[in-house]
Design goal:
alpha/beta, Aspartate Aminotransferase, domain 1, three-stranded antiparallel β-sheet, 9 helices
Length: about 350
């Protein structure tokens, strides 16, 4: 089989152009005579790679100069702990519970201080983003945490909470670089790379300078933002190859016209699938319309056997990884930046055929 249309939630599809460049550079990166995997992270070559990746990400997201960019390890999971460890000075934070990832962030934060769950959509299996009333926010919280896009359920915030002086912290793992965000509205953003940026193994942290402090000596060295800021992500050996691929993805995205341009494409792609779901008598979306994700689109037929048959027949046609998360069931199409419009069009054509055949 050649290349498939890969709808995996993560690790997920990467731009073909990036894979080709990486392939071509595998044996000899830019005349170094070695692959990026084999070079010292202290070499001038690698220094150039990681600095360029940071510069391109800054460019793409318009990151203000008073923010630091870090390439760390341990995934978003480690950030669930690093955020409260480093940011909970007064020992209090507000969280919104919009699903499994928020819950994990909440339970880690509870180990370090008092967590107020301001709102939750658990009453309806996380199929919507709850309304947030600033009156209910803690004025003296160290930060306010949200998950901007809920990978498993397919919801996303369409407007950010107004947290005033309280820094807004966001898990942006599954929608970073998919739509425009004003970074200055956040105190800290973190995102695992393997959804919309690159391979697993690296998590990007964007942190406002004034939040980088070192008042708690008991925090393990590797879990302090300050250490990584001071050593520009090179305190220990970074995930060299993953950062390199992220860098290639950033260059690809710049060539595509940047975040505003890809946002248009993402809106177009999502509309193709949502419009079909809204018109189909077999397939249905599972999420409140106002909160629909551009990246992860869950849908069901309402009949488990039919869902299974669909997933199987789709895979045989080269539409793979469409099985929904085990906690939601049904199907989920993840259509990250690297999924071409043709992939979504082809999927919808297949869904139409399937519906006609199985009426
Ligand atoms: C995938 C995902 C995570 C977990 O990321 P890891 O890199 O596996 O730690 C956390 N949050 C969100 C929103 C995700 O989509």
């Amino acid at each position: 089989m050649g290349r498939v249309f890969n709808f995996s939630a993560g690790p997920s599809v990467l731009p073909e152009e990036v894979l080709k460049i990486a392939g071509n550079e595998m044996m000899d990166w830019h005349g170094s005579g070695m692959s990026v995997m084999e070079m010292s992270h202290r070499s001038k070559w690698y220094d150039g790679i990681i600095k360029q990746a940071e510069a391109d990400l800054r460019d793409l997201m318009d990151i203000p100069s008073n923010y630091k960019v870090l390439f760390l390890q341990g995934g978003a999971y480690t950030q669930f702990a690093m955020v409260p460890m480093n940011l909970m000075k007064k020992g209090k934070a507000d969280y919104v519970n919009t699903g499994a990832w928020s819950k994990k962030a909440i339970s880690e934060a509870r180990k370090f201080g008092k967590v107020n769950v301001i709102a939750s959509s658990e009453d309806s299996s996380f199929t919507y983003i709850p309304e947030l009333d600033p009156e209910t926010f803690s004025k003296d919280a160290d930060y306010f945490h949200i998950t901007t896009n809920n990978t498993i359920y397919g919801t996303r915030y369409t407007k950010l909470p107004e947290t005033g002086k309280v820094p807004l912290v966001a898990d942006m793992s599954s929608n970073i670089l998919s739509e425009k965000y004003d970074v200055s509205k956040f105190g800290l953003i973190y995102a695992g790379a393997q959804k919309n940026m690159g391979p697993a193994g690296v998590v990007v942290v964007i942190i406002r300078e004034d939040l980088v402090t070192d008042t708690q000596p008991e925090i393990p060295t590797m879990l302090k933002y300050k250490i990584h800021v001071e050593s520009q992500s090179l305190y220990n050996t970074p995930p060299c190859y993953s950062v390199y691929i992220c860098g290639l993805v950033y260059q690809w995205l710049k060539k595509m016209g940047g975040v505003s341009a890809i946002q248009k494409v993402n809106q177009e792609k999502a509309a193709i699938l949502y419009d079909f779901l809204d018109s189909s008598s077999m397939f249905k979306g599972t999420v409140a319309k106002k909160d629909r994700s551009l990246m992860n689109i869950p849908f069901i037929t309402g009949d488990k056997d039919l869902d299974a048959q669909f997933i199987q027949e789709a895979a045989a046609k080269g539409f793979v990884n469409l099985k929904g998360h085990r906690s939601v069931g049904g199907m989920r199409a993840s259509i990250y930046n690297a999924m071409p419009v043709e992939g979504v069009q082809a999927l919808v054509s297949f869904m139409k055929e399937f519906e006609a055949k199985n009426k």
